[in-house]
Specification:
The protein is an alpha+beta fold. Helix content is about 60%, strand content about 15%.
Length: about 240
């Protein structure tokens, strides 16, 4: 096996690639850190630098074929890291944008490690634009009222009851919605305490009449087994 020798030119190219990955990953991470996201400055820098280092090493050891293999491993491997920052809190899923940013930081590092410095800069610019310039548009859309005509609205009917009345409340909820011909996707327990338990029946995505759902809630509240009833509307996660 030939002994590796130190090549100042190769070393300088590696240093430039890692420096560019460090700076661009730092810019992306700084924006994430500023917004107090889970994966901030250090994480994005390490992802970018790590991707650049692996691709650079793949090129030095295996040439173009080696770099292609390493790039494919980076793309698949970063998915496991991204999965670690995605959390589900009730019906809400958080961290998807952070995971996507980490994936994009790896792309920046991959470009830098392959010596495509202009491409790395371009990708970093688009990532920053996506996380900053598009934010006002996303916030505007999120604040718009949910309309069954423009979104796939998901309706839920909620009831609160005492623990010993859960089975009866579940049956009443099911029967009431069946009588109104609203198909039920599932009935789940949203919160469970020593004194009160909240159940929610999720309807199959469809259009519903708010007045009918108000009537359903009022009718359910008449039963002794149910302390309170209401309904909510949202969108698919």
């Amino acid at each position: 096996m030939p002994q590796a020798t130190f090549d100042p030119l190769v070393f300088s190219k590696t240093a430039v690639a890692l420096l560019i990955a460090f700076v661009l990953g730092g810019l992306i991470g700084l924006e994430r850190q500023w917004r107090q996201r889970t994966a901030g400055l250090r994480t994005n820098v390490l992802v970018a630098v790590g991707a650049a280092a692996f691709v650079d090493l793949g090129m030095r050891v295996g040439g173009a074929d080696g770099s292609v293999r390493v790039i494919s491993y980076v793309v698949s491997g970063i998915g496991f890291l991204g999965a670690g920052v995605i959390m589900k809190e009730g019906a809400q899923v958080r961290g998807i944008n952070t995971a996507a940013t980490l994936w994009a930081s790896a792309a920046v590092g991959t470009f830098a490690g392959a010596g495509e410095f202009a491409g790395a800069l371009l990708v970093a610019a688009f990532v920053l634009a996506g996380n900053t310039l598009l934010r006002p548009i996303a916030n505007y859309v999120n604040r718009a009222p949910i309309s069954p005509e423009t979104t796939e609205a998901v309706y839920r009917v909620h009831v609160v009851c005492r623990p010993e009345k859960v089975s009866e409340a579940r049956d009443l909820l099911f029967e009431e919605l069946e009588q109104r011909r609203y198909p039920i996707r599932e009935i789940e327990t949203l919160s469970e305490g020593e004194e009160l338990i909240e159940l929610a029946a999720t309807l199959v995505p469809t259009s519903a009449d708010p007045k009918e759902l108000d009537a359903v809630a009022r009718h359910l509240e008449r039963h002794e087994a149910i302390a309170s009833a209401t309904w909510t509307v949202g969108t698919e996660s």
